[in-house]
Every structure is written in structure tokens, then in C-alpha cells.
Amino acid sequence: MTPLDAFPPTREAALARIAAVRPADYARSRNAIEGAVTHLSPYITHGLVNLPEVLAGVSARHLLDVQHKFVFELGWREYFRHVWRHCGVGILASLHQGLLPDDDYGAGLPLDIRQARTGVPAIDVAVRTLYDSGTLHNHARMWLASYLVHLRKVHWRVGADWLYGHLLDGDLASNHLSWQWVAGTGSRKPYLFNADNVARFAPAAWHSPDSVIDTSYEALDRIARQPVRAGPAESVMPTGYPVQVEPPLLTDPSPELAVTVPDAVAVAGRNVWLVHPWNLGELPQTLPADTLVIGVFVADFHQAWPWNERRWHFVASRMAELAAQCWYADAAAIGAALKGARQVRSIDEPHLQPWLASLAACMPAPTLFPSVEQRCDSFSQWWTRALRGLHSTAELLERQQAPGWWTKETVKDQPRTAGFQNNGGAGGI
Ligand SMILES: Cc1cc2nc3c(=O)[nH]c(=O)nc-3n(C[C@H](O)[C@H](O)[C@H](O)COP(=O)(O)OP(=O)(O)OC[C@H]3O[C@@H](n4cnc5c(N)ncnc54)[C@H](O)[C@@H]3O)c2cc1C
């Protein structure tokens, strides 16, 4: 199986997954490892489809109450973005103290976890699944995070950075804030789990009887509150226990991906639409016909947040389908090359802050839920505010602008962002 077989990097594949969503089965089985989840997250993360498109596609086929479990889970993604908007890079540090001070947790990821040889099947199978597929069921992510933080006393940020790098859907808001939710630094109480919970929701290979997690919630709570880990620093497994090799994380694309350095000549005097790794959906229908589409990988981001090879392939393949050229360079070099362009536009993306605003005039990305201005410290608070006055998914879909949100009017009315670059007033809007 090639790396992209399970997740072809195409709109068609994303739309087929939307068509296959079975909301009733989803609601019933979402917590089970083999439950009817959608596997849409790599497509949503990279903008091949957006949440309004997902909900519109599902509700066109199924009657969906606005309080349905599926809509609720889409809400979690936007809630985490709401927190990101309010806290900025603050989401990368503990939002408040958890069970123990930050310093009581280790700054390194133990090798037995990296190599999937902890001897706790639920953890070892999860790590192997992650490395093999670039994805992991939500419940397994919670188990992995809880085990690392509360039993092994690894700081949540260490685990979050590591998991982010190996996921095809790695998203700084959903990932890092979920880790904080599990750790108890972004929620009121920590998330704990035991072997009975694994046995209830996972197939036999994950079951972990007689392991460190085979205990009561009271005992787990006591362990979580102690500043010392349960057991030795690293598990020593018998000879013959499988050792998993951790896939390398890469800061730049491999040569066969046809990503080049910026080409100032190609864009000189042109209207440019920038495609980046988080807006890989359909191009806006109202782009002027002579627009040149350029894909950009901003190296400043990728140096800090490397990806696995599978993700580079996924993103670069789709980007190549949309763009005449795909560039990889730091923001300064991309900006210098775009200086001669007539106008440069794109869609906003917090992963590319602060660089994108200096490269292009950006439209906001489409959202499903109404924006909640006041910061909400809990999902339920946000959910209540976001849905105030909305009684159906139809109303939810009506109020937002996508698809077709990019109209001639919004293009015309859009103010330039502070750092908008053009060729000294020769064009622009
Ligand atoms: C420790 C941890 C780390 C996580 N890291 C990420 C991450 O980097 N990127 C990411 O997209 N999700 C992350 N999640 C949330 C969730 O696990 C994934 O969105 C989900 O497993 C993706 O599979 P799916 O598309 O089949 O989800 P489904 O259950 O089918 O849900 C459909 C869509 O709703 C959204 N969604 C569902 N549940 C959540 C949730 N709890 N939080 C946020 N969005 C949700 C996703 O966009 C998902 O694709 C993390 C959760 C945990 C506990």
C-alpha cells in the first residue's frame, strides 16, 4: 500500500467520504475504535473541504438536528479555533495549572513510547497505528495522551508536539488544546482511562489486562496527582517484543515533489492567488481569468513544525493540482518574489501567522458557526453562545457564506491587510 492509498489527496475523495457519512451510526458508535467515524480530518485540516461543505453534504442526505452528535463534533473543531483566536501562541503553554506544576512533568519522550514497546497493548498498538497510517481514532488519541501525561509524567507539550508531527491531520488548535483538555490544563479535570474502558471500545489486540492501566479510577487518580511516575522510567520488554521504527519528520519536501524556489519573473505584473497547505479546496469561482495560482510552503512554519513524508506527499500532490508552481522558501524570499505581482490574494490561516498577512490580502476562511466574540473557557459555554437563536442545521447553513462565499462583492469590498504587497501601486484593489 502506498502512503496515500487510504487518503487520496483529491476533492473527489473528500466528497466521497462526505457522501458515506452515516450520522445515526456515527452517533451510536463514534467512541468505538472500529466505529462509523468519517475519516474526514486530513481533508478538513487542509481545506480540501470546509465545515459548511461537510454539513451541507451530510444534511442533504440525512435529517440532522442541530444538536446531533455529528454537528456537535464539528463544533469542537471550531471551538478550538475560537480559543486559538483569543489566546494566540498562548495555546502552546498550559492555559492554567493542571494537577501538578509544569515542572513536575518530564521534558523528553521516553524511547519505549516512541518505539511502541511500553508493554501496554493499548499504547503500543496506538503508536504503531499512528506511524503506519498517519492517523488515529479520537479515543486512542485520548488514551495515548492520558497515559503519557498522567502515568508517565511527560509534559503534555512534549506529547502534543510529537503527535502533531506524525498526524496527517495535525492541527495546532485541535491537537494542542486536546492535549491540554486531557492534561487538565485546559479543562476542569484530567481525563483518565483504564483497561476496562479499552476493553469496552477497542478490539482484542488493544486490550491491556494486567498492565499498569488495569486498575480502578480511584487508583489512577491517586497516581495522576503524585509527582512521580508509575513504574520505571522506561519499560524493558522481553527479547522478541516488536520495536517500531519512528518515521522521520521532515522540515522540507522531498525532491520528487516538484516544489521549487520562488520565481519572481513568473508572477511579475500578474494577479496572483496564493494556495497554501490549509486552503486546498476549490479555487474561488470569481477569480479573474488571468489569475496565476501559486502554491506556497512557508519554510518559517515548517522549520518549527516538521511533518512526516506521507503528509508532505498529501499536501504537495493536491497543491500541484491547483497551482501553476509550488514554492518552498522562507516568508522573506516568497515576499521578495511576489513584490512585482499586480495583486496577491489568499485565505487567512492561523498556522501561517504572522507571515501570510505580509504576503497577500486575505479573505477570512469560511466557518460553520457564528463567531463568538467573548472568549469562552469551556466548549459548552461556546456551544450555547454559538447556537443562540439557531434551531436547525438549515439555519446554520443559511447564515454562513460558503460555498459561493467568495462573491464579486466581497472581493471588491475587502480592505488590504497591513502588509499587503504589490508593485508600488501598479494594481491591487
Ligand atoms: C490528543 C488529541 C489530539 C488531537 N489532534 C487532532 C489534530 O491534530 N487534528 C484534528 O483535526 N483533530 C484532532 N483531534 C480531534 C479528533 O481526534 C480528530 O478530529 C478525529 O479523530 C478525526 O477523525 P475523523 O475525521 O474520523 O473524526 P469524526 O469523529 O468523524 O469527526 C468529523 C470531524 O469533526 C471534527 N472533530 C471531531 N471530533 C473532534 C474533536 N474532538 N476535536 C476537534 N475536532 C473534532 C474533525 O474535523 C473531524 O474530521 C485530537 C484529539 C485528541 C484527543
Description:
The protein has 429 residues and is an alpha/beta fold. 40% of the residues lie in helices and 7% in strands. It is built from 19 helices and 7 strands. It has helices at 11-19, 23-29, 41-45, 51-59, 69-87, 111-114, 121-133, 138-151, 156-166, 172-183, 195-201, 217-225, 264-267, 299-304, 309-322, 331-338, 379-386, 393-399, 408-413; strands spanning 249-250, 271-275, 292-298, 307-308, 325-329, 343-347, 361-363. It binds flavin-adenine dinucleotide. Flavin-adenine dinucleotide is lined by residues 30, 37-41, 44-45, 73-74, 76-77, 80, 137-138, 141-142, 145, 167, 169-171, 174-175, 178-179, 182.
Task: Set down the secondary structure blueprint.
Layout: H1 11-19, H2 23-29, H3 41-45, H4 51-59, H5 69-87, H6 111-114, H7 121-133, H8 138-151, H9 156-166, H10 172-183, H11 195-201, H12 217-225, E1 249-250, H13 264-267, E2 271-275, E3 292-298, H14 299-304, E4 307-308, H15 309-322, E5 325-329, H16 331-338, E6 343-347, E7 361-363, H17 379-386, H18 393-399, H19 408-413
Parallel strand pairs: 2-3, 2-6, 3-5, 6-7
Antiparallel strand pairs: 1-4
Helix pairs in contact: 5-10, 7-8, 8-10, 9-10
Bound molecules: flavin-adenine dinucleotide (FAD).
Flavin-adenine dinucleotide binds at residues 30, 37-41, 44-45, 73-74, 76-77, 80, 137-138, 141-142, 145, 167, 169-171, 174-175, 178-179, 182.
